[in-house]
Write a structure and sequence with these properties.
about 300 residues, about 45% helix, 12 strands, 2 domains, two-stranded antiparallel sheet, Rossmann fold, ten-stranded mixed beta sheet
Length: about 300
Protein backbone atom coordinates (compact mmCIF):
# COMPACT_ATOMS: atom_id res chain seq x y z
CA UNK A 1 0.00 0.00 0.00
CA UNK A 2 1.29 3.45 -0.86
CA UNK A 3 1.65 5.87 2.01
CA UNK A 4 -0.90 8.62 2.45
CA UNK A 5 2.05 10.94 2.65
CA UNK A 6 5.80 10.81 2.62
CA UNK A 7 6.03 10.30 6.36
CA UNK A 8 8.64 7.54 6.44
CA UNK A 9 11.04 10.10 7.93
CA UNK A 10 9.00 10.00 11.14
CA UNK A 11 9.73 6.36 11.91
CA UNK A 12 7.53 4.02 13.99
CA UNK A 13 8.54 5.54 17.32
CA UNK A 14 7.98 9.12 16.18
CA UNK A 15 4.42 8.28 15.14
CA UNK A 16 3.59 7.53 18.77
CA UNK A 17 4.53 11.07 19.77
CA UNK A 18 2.23 12.73 17.25
CA UNK A 19 -0.76 14.38 18.84
CA UNK A 20 -3.57 13.29 16.60
CA UNK A 21 -6.18 10.72 15.81
CA UNK A 22 -6.45 7.51 17.82
CA UNK A 23 -9.77 6.19 16.51
CA UNK A 24 -10.56 6.35 12.80
CA UNK A 25 -13.83 5.10 11.32
CA UNK A 26 -14.40 4.21 7.69
CA UNK A 27 -17.78 3.72 6.03
CA UNK A 28 -18.20 0.51 4.05
CA UNK A 29 -21.15 -0.58 1.92
CA UNK A 30 -19.94 -3.51 -0.17
CA UNK A 31 -19.21 -1.47 -3.30
CA UNK A 32 -15.95 -0.88 -5.18
CA UNK A 33 -15.55 2.42 -3.31
CA UNK A 34 -14.85 0.46 -0.12
CA UNK A 35 -11.26 -0.19 -1.16
CA UNK A 36 -10.65 3.51 -1.91
CA UNK A 37 -12.01 4.59 1.47
CA UNK A 38 -10.24 1.78 3.29
CA UNK A 39 -6.80 2.56 1.84
CA UNK A 40 -7.15 6.25 2.72
CA UNK A 41 -8.35 5.52 6.26
CA UNK A 42 -5.68 2.86 6.82
CA UNK A 43 -2.95 5.31 5.82
CA UNK A 44 -4.20 7.89 8.35
CA UNK A 45 -4.46 5.24 11.06
CA UNK A 46 -0.91 4.07 10.33
CA UNK A 47 0.52 7.59 10.61
CA UNK A 48 -0.99 8.16 14.05
CA UNK A 49 -0.82 4.59 15.37
CA UNK A 50 -4.62 4.72 15.53
CA UNK A 51 -7.22 1.99 15.66
CA UNK A 52 -9.26 1.62 12.47
CA UNK A 53 -12.89 0.52 12.68
CA UNK A 54 -14.87 -0.35 9.58
CA UNK A 55 -18.59 0.39 9.73
CA UNK A 56 -20.44 -1.78 7.22
CA UNK A 57 -23.96 -0.44 6.71
CA UNK A 58 -26.67 -2.71 5.37
CA UNK A 59 -29.90 -0.74 4.99
CA UNK A 60 -33.08 -2.76 5.44
CA UNK A 61 -36.52 -1.81 4.08
CA UNK A 62 -38.93 0.02 6.34
CA UNK A 63 -41.78 -2.48 6.68
CA UNK A 64 -44.11 0.25 7.97
CA UNK A 65 -44.00 1.92 4.57
CA UNK A 66 -45.60 -1.14 2.96
CA UNK A 67 -49.23 -0.71 3.94
CA UNK A 68 -50.91 -3.83 2.54
CA UNK A 69 -50.25 -7.40 3.73
CA UNK A 70 -48.85 -8.43 0.31
CA UNK A 71 -46.56 -5.41 0.40
CA UNK A 72 -45.40 -6.28 3.91
CA UNK A 73 -44.72 -9.86 2.84
CA UNK A 74 -42.66 -8.68 -0.13
CA UNK A 75 -40.75 -6.37 2.20
CA UNK A 76 -39.94 -9.23 4.56
CA UNK A 77 -38.66 -11.34 1.68
CA UNK A 78 -36.52 -8.43 0.48
CA UNK A 79 -35.18 -7.94 4.00
CA UNK A 80 -34.09 -11.56 4.21
CA UNK A 81 -32.29 -11.31 0.87
CA UNK A 82 -30.53 -8.14 2.03
CA UNK A 83 -29.50 -9.80 5.27
CA UNK A 84 -28.10 -12.82 3.39
CA UNK A 85 -26.22 -10.60 0.94
CA UNK A 86 -25.00 -8.45 3.83
CA UNK A 87 -23.60 -11.47 5.65
CA UNK A 88 -21.69 -12.53 2.54
CA UNK A 89 -20.29 -9.01 2.12
CA UNK A 90 -19.35 -8.85 5.79
CA UNK A 91 -17.35 -12.08 5.51
CA UNK A 92 -15.52 -10.74 2.46
CA UNK A 93 -14.71 -7.51 4.28
CA UNK A 94 -13.52 -9.48 7.30
CA UNK A 95 -10.99 -11.25 5.08
CA UNK A 96 -9.78 -7.86 3.81
CA UNK A 97 -9.45 -6.51 7.37
CA UNK A 98 -7.24 -9.45 8.26
CA UNK A 99 -4.71 -8.02 5.79
CA UNK A 100 -4.56 -4.51 7.28
CA UNK A 101 -1.34 -3.20 8.79
CA UNK A 102 -3.03 -1.42 11.72
CA UNK A 103 -5.09 -2.45 14.74
CA UNK A 104 -8.64 -2.82 13.51
CA UNK A 105 -12.11 -4.15 13.94
CA UNK A 106 -15.11 -4.55 11.64
CA UNK A 107 -18.65 -3.76 12.70
CA UNK A 108 -21.95 -4.30 10.93
CA UNK A 109 -24.99 -2.05 11.32
CA UNK A 110 -28.09 -3.63 9.83
CA UNK A 111 -31.16 -1.48 10.37
CA UNK A 112 -33.98 0.41 8.72
CA UNK A 113 -32.97 3.87 7.45
CA UNK A 114 -33.67 6.09 10.47
CA UNK A 115 -32.23 3.67 13.03
CA UNK A 116 -29.23 3.00 10.81
CA UNK A 117 -28.38 6.70 10.54
CA UNK A 118 -28.67 7.16 14.29
CA UNK A 119 -26.49 4.14 14.99
CA UNK A 120 -23.74 5.27 12.62
CA UNK A 121 -23.81 8.80 14.06
CA UNK A 122 -23.42 7.33 17.56
CA UNK A 123 -20.35 5.43 16.37
CA UNK A 124 -18.94 8.64 14.84
CA UNK A 125 -19.22 10.47 18.18
CA UNK A 126 -16.85 7.93 19.72
CA UNK A 127 -14.08 8.39 17.14
CA UNK A 128 -11.75 11.15 15.99
CA UNK A 129 -12.38 10.99 12.27
CA UNK A 130 -14.94 9.45 9.92
CA UNK A 131 -13.93 8.62 6.33
CA UNK A 132 -16.65 8.27 3.70
CA UNK A 133 -17.37 9.08 0.05
CA UNK A 134 -18.89 12.30 -1.25
CA UNK A 135 -22.59 11.36 -1.35
CA UNK A 136 -23.33 12.01 -5.00
CA UNK A 137 -24.14 9.94 -8.05
CA UNK A 138 -25.95 6.64 -8.30
CA UNK A 139 -23.72 4.80 -5.80
CA UNK A 140 -22.53 6.96 -2.90
CA UNK A 141 -25.57 9.22 -3.34
CA UNK A 142 -27.62 6.54 -1.63
CA UNK A 143 -25.98 7.53 1.65
CA UNK A 144 -26.55 11.30 1.41
CA UNK A 145 -28.81 11.54 4.46
CA UNK A 146 -26.52 9.32 6.52
CA UNK A 147 -23.48 11.46 5.67
CA UNK A 148 -25.38 14.66 6.46
CA UNK A 149 -26.37 13.31 9.87
CA UNK A 150 -22.78 12.30 10.65
CA UNK A 151 -21.56 15.75 9.55
CA UNK A 152 -24.05 17.72 11.61
CA UNK A 153 -24.56 15.41 14.60
CA UNK A 154 -21.36 13.35 14.81
CA UNK A 155 -19.33 16.02 16.60
CA UNK A 156 -16.03 15.26 14.85
CA UNK A 157 -14.29 15.65 11.51
CA UNK A 158 -15.67 14.04 8.37
CA UNK A 159 -13.40 13.23 5.43
CA UNK A 160 -15.24 12.89 2.11
CA UNK A 161 -13.46 11.30 -0.85
CA UNK A 162 -14.48 11.87 -4.47
CA UNK A 163 -15.72 8.77 -6.28
CA UNK A 164 -12.89 6.72 -7.84
CA UNK A 165 -10.35 8.90 -6.04
CA UNK A 166 -6.71 7.97 -6.61
CA UNK A 167 -4.57 8.63 -3.54
CA UNK A 168 -1.52 10.81 -4.00
CA UNK A 169 1.98 10.07 -2.83
CA UNK A 170 2.10 12.81 -0.21
CA UNK A 171 -0.03 15.30 1.69
CA UNK A 172 1.75 18.35 0.32
CA UNK A 173 -0.77 21.17 0.17
CA UNK A 174 -3.88 21.81 2.25
CA UNK A 175 -6.35 24.58 1.48
CA UNK A 176 -8.42 26.00 4.33
CA UNK A 177 -11.65 27.61 3.13
CA UNK A 178 -11.93 30.26 5.82
CA UNK A 179 -15.03 32.20 6.77
CA UNK A 180 -15.03 33.73 10.24
CA UNK A 181 -17.55 31.25 11.66
CA UNK A 182 -17.81 28.58 14.32
CA UNK A 183 -18.01 25.86 11.66
CA UNK A 184 -14.72 26.90 10.03
CA UNK A 185 -13.00 27.04 13.41
CA UNK A 186 -14.33 23.58 14.25
CA UNK A 187 -13.03 22.18 10.95
CA UNK A 188 -9.54 23.57 11.60
CA UNK A 189 -9.49 22.04 15.08
CA UNK A 190 -10.49 18.63 13.68
CA UNK A 191 -7.89 18.89 10.90
CA UNK A 192 -4.95 19.99 13.07
CA UNK A 193 -3.15 16.62 13.11
CA UNK A 194 -3.08 16.57 9.30
CA UNK A 195 -2.27 20.28 9.03
CA UNK A 196 0.87 19.70 11.11
CA UNK A 197 2.03 17.10 8.62
CA UNK A 198 1.32 19.07 5.45
CA UNK A 199 4.18 20.70 3.58
CA UNK A 200 2.11 23.79 2.80
CA UNK A 201 -1.15 25.16 4.23
CA UNK A 202 -2.95 28.04 2.56
CA UNK A 203 -5.88 29.96 4.00
CA UNK A 204 -8.37 31.06 1.37
CA UNK A 205 -10.61 33.74 2.83
CA UNK A 206 -13.96 34.31 1.12
CA UNK A 207 -16.36 36.90 2.50
CA UNK A 208 -19.28 39.03 1.46
CA UNK A 209 -18.02 42.53 0.48
CA UNK A 210 -19.59 44.20 3.53
CA UNK A 211 -17.83 41.78 5.89
CA UNK A 212 -14.32 42.00 4.44
CA UNK A 213 -13.08 44.93 6.54
CA UNK A 214 -14.23 43.65 9.93
CA UNK A 215 -13.37 39.99 9.34
CA UNK A 216 -9.92 40.33 7.82
CA UNK A 217 -8.49 40.54 11.34
CA UNK A 218 -9.85 37.07 12.03
CA UNK A 219 -7.65 35.66 9.27
CA UNK A 220 -4.47 37.04 10.85
CA UNK A 221 -5.54 35.67 14.21
CA UNK A 222 -6.28 32.17 12.91
CA UNK A 223 -2.96 32.18 11.02
CA UNK A 224 -1.12 33.10 14.23
CA UNK A 225 -3.03 30.41 16.12
CA UNK A 226 -2.02 27.78 13.57
CA UNK A 227 1.58 28.96 13.69
CA UNK A 228 1.65 28.31 17.44
CA UNK A 229 0.48 24.78 16.66
CA UNK A 230 3.41 24.28 14.31
CA UNK A 231 1.44 24.88 11.11
CA UNK A 232 3.11 27.32 8.74
CA UNK A 233 0.44 29.04 6.71
CA UNK A 234 0.16 31.49 3.86
CA UNK A 235 -2.84 33.61 3.06
CA UNK A 236 -4.81 33.97 -0.18
CA UNK A 237 -7.42 36.68 -0.57
CA UNK A 238 -9.55 38.04 0.90
CA UNK A 239 -11.88 37.24 -1.95
CA UNK A 240 -15.13 39.12 -2.21
CA UNK A 241 -17.96 36.68 -2.78
CA UNK A 242 -20.47 38.14 -5.22
CA UNK A 243 -20.27 34.70 -6.85
CA UNK A 244 -20.25 31.27 -5.27
CA UNK A 245 -17.67 30.96 -2.49
CA UNK A 246 -17.28 27.24 -3.18
CA UNK A 247 -16.14 27.96 -6.73
CA UNK A 248 -13.43 30.31 -5.41
CA UNK A 249 -12.22 27.68 -2.93
CA UNK A 250 -12.09 25.02 -5.65
CA UNK A 251 -10.29 27.33 -8.07
CA UNK A 252 -7.63 28.10 -5.48
CA UNK A 253 -7.34 24.43 -4.55
CA UNK A 254 -6.69 23.55 -8.19
CA UNK A 255 -4.29 26.46 -8.65
CA UNK A 256 -2.08 25.11 -5.85
CA UNK A 257 -2.68 21.40 -6.62
CA UNK A 258 -4.16 20.87 -3.15
CA UNK A 259 -4.39 17.40 -1.66
CA UNK A 260 -7.08 18.31 0.88
CA UNK A 261 -9.65 21.05 1.43
CA UNK A 262 -10.59 21.90 5.02
CA UNK A 263 -13.80 23.83 5.50
CA UNK A 264 -16.80 24.20 7.76
CA UNK A 265 -19.92 22.16 7.06
CA UNK A 266 -22.91 24.48 6.89
CA UNK A 267 -26.59 23.67 7.12
CA UNK A 268 -29.80 24.15 9.06
CA UNK A 269 -32.48 21.90 10.48
CA UNK A 270 -35.93 23.52 10.28
CA UNK A 271 -37.91 20.28 10.71
CA UNK A 272 -35.48 17.91 12.48
CA UNK A 273 -33.88 17.08 9.12
CA UNK A 274 -30.64 18.68 8.05
CA UNK A 275 -30.49 20.73 4.85
CA UNK A 276 -27.05 21.46 3.44
CA UNK A 277 -25.96 25.05 2.96
CA UNK A 278 -25.09 26.21 -0.56
CA UNK A 279 -21.30 26.24 -0.16
CA UNK A 280 -21.24 22.81 1.49
CA UNK A 281 -23.56 21.31 -1.12
CA UNK A 282 -21.49 22.71 -3.98
CA UNK A 283 -18.22 21.37 -2.57
CA UNK A 284 -19.67 17.92 -1.92
CA UNK A 285 -21.21 17.76 -5.40
CA UNK A 286 -18.30 19.20 -7.37
CA UNK A 287 -14.99 18.68 -5.58
CA UNK A 288 -12.46 16.28 -7.09
CA UNK A 289 -10.24 16.84 -4.05
CA UNK A 290 -10.83 15.19 -0.64
CA UNK A 291 -12.73 17.36 1.83
CA UNK A 292 -12.40 17.52 5.59
CA UNK A 293 -15.51 19.12 7.05
CA UNK A 294 -16.88 19.73 10.53
CA UNK A 295 -19.94 21.46 11.90
Amino acid sequence: MKDFGDFSRLGPESSKTLVGYKDVLVHLDGTAEDEIRLRYAEAIAAIFDARLAGIFTNELPDIASYGSPPGAMASMELEQRLRDDGEATFRRLADRFDQLSVANELRKIEEMPVKLRRAVTTEARCADLFVASCPRGAGPGKWARLIEEVLFEGGHGLVLLPEQFKSREALDTVIIGWINTREAARAIAEALPLLRLATSTRIVCVEEPAALARRIFGVADIAAHLDRHGVKVSFEGPFSAPRDAASIILEEAHRFSADLIVTGGYGHSPMHEWILGGVTRHLINQSDIPLLMAH
